[in-house]
């Protein structure tokens, strides 16, 4: 049975996607506007990336900066249009004013995904109570991953939380894969792998020239080699 760790790379366009796949990415997260921490790409961008690569694509469902759902009807419409284009994996996550999960918004959006697999993104790192959020979402159709740094301030501060949650894997609310991302560096990987964490998400780390530059095949390949123990 394979124990290969999952490497997910943020792609903004088809050029990024092709480079990430060539470097060894297992999956892409598709977003636009990283100045707003990643919003939903256009249907045209999704179609171009889908035509360019054959690895799984998770499409962000987020229309504005921040973690409030905003116009849920519009989110639902966007999700439906992407489904019509062939999107079958997604990323979403919404908090209410009190820092708790906006369960109504999540249920409405996830409900039109028709069982597609999806990631609850780093809104969990801004939640008032991570454990309560996980338990509120326990059993939600399609939810198979939490993207988290363990802290709103990034992996450096979040490692104790990541290790504690990894130790609870399989408990109610903790069945989903932990996808570590948010200030993740190669030096973090050995400790995280040793704790049984097997999902890693990179964005800026795949772009030596910064967000204005494209994904680097070599940078992704370096991550792939470290994760594979090469």
Structure commentary:
The protein is of the alpha/beta class and 230 residues long. It has a single domain, classed as Copper homeostasis (CutC) domain (TIM Barrel), CATH 3.20.20. Helix content is 34%, strand content 16%. It contains eight helices and eight strands. β5, α5 and β6 (143-148) form a beta-alpha-beta unit. α1 (14-23) runs parallel beside α2 and α1 (14-23) runs parallel beside α8.
Summarize the helices and strands and which ones pair or pack.
Elements: E1 6-11, H1 14-23, E2 27-30, H2 43-52, E3 57-60, H3 72-84, E4 89-92, H4 103-111, E5 117-120, H5 130-136, E6 143-148, H6 155-167, E7 177-180, H7 189-194, E8 199-202, H8 217-227
Parallel strand pairs: 1-2, 1-8, 2-3, 3-4, 4-5, 5-6, 6-7
InterPro entries: CutC-like, CutC-like_dom_sf
Pfam family, one: CutC
Protein name: Copper homeostasis protein cutC homolog
C-alpha termini separation? 19 Å
Class based on secondary structure composition and strand pairing: alpha/beta
Q: Give the proportion of residues in helices.
A: 25-40%
What percentage of the residues does DSSP assign to strands (E)? 15-25%
Number of helix segments? 8
**In the CATH hierarchy, what is the architecture at level 2?**
Alpha-Beta Barrel
Radius of gyration: 16 Å
Shape: globular
Number of strands: 8
Q: Would you identify the regions where 5 or more consecutive residues have pLDDT less than 50?
A: none
Major β-sheet annotation: 8 strands, parallel
CATH class: Alpha Beta
Strand order of the largest sheet: 7-6-5-4-3-2-1-8
What is the CATH superfamily?
Copper homeostasis (CutC) domain
Q: What is the count of distinct domains?
A: 1
What do we call the CATH topology?
TIM Barrel
Q: List the secondary-structure elements in sequence, H or E.
A: EHEHEHEHEHEHEHEH
* Arithmetic mean pLDDT: 96
């Amino acid at each position: 049975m394979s124990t290969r760790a999952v490497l997910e790379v943020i792609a903004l366009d088809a050029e990024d996607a092709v480079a990430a796949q060539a470097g060894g990415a297992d999956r892409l997260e598709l977003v636009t506007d990283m100045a707003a921490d990643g919003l939903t790409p256009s249907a045209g961008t999704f179609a171009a990336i889908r035509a360019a690569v054959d690895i799984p694509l998770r499409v962000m469902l987020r229309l504005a900066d921040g973690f409030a759902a905003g116009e849920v009807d519009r989110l639902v419409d966007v999700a439906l249009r992407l489904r019509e284009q062939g999107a079958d994996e997604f990323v979403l996550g919404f908090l209410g004013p009190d820092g708790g999960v906006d369960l109504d918004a999540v249920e409405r959006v996830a409900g039109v995904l028709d069982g597609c697999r999806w990631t609850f993104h780093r809104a969990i790192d801004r939640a008032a109570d991570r454990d309560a959020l996980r338990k509120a979402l326990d059993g939600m159709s399609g939810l198979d991953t939490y993207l988290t740094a363990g802290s709103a301030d990034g992996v450096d501060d979040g490692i104790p939380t990541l290790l504690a949650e990894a130790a609870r894997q399989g408990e109610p609310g903790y069945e989903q894969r932990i996808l570590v991302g948010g200030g993740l560096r190669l030096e973090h990987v050995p400790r995280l792998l040793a704790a049984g964490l097997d999902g890693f998400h990179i964005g800026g780390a795949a772009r030596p020239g910064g967000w204005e530059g494209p994904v680097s095949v070599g940078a992704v390949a370096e991550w792939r080699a470290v994760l594979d123990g090469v």
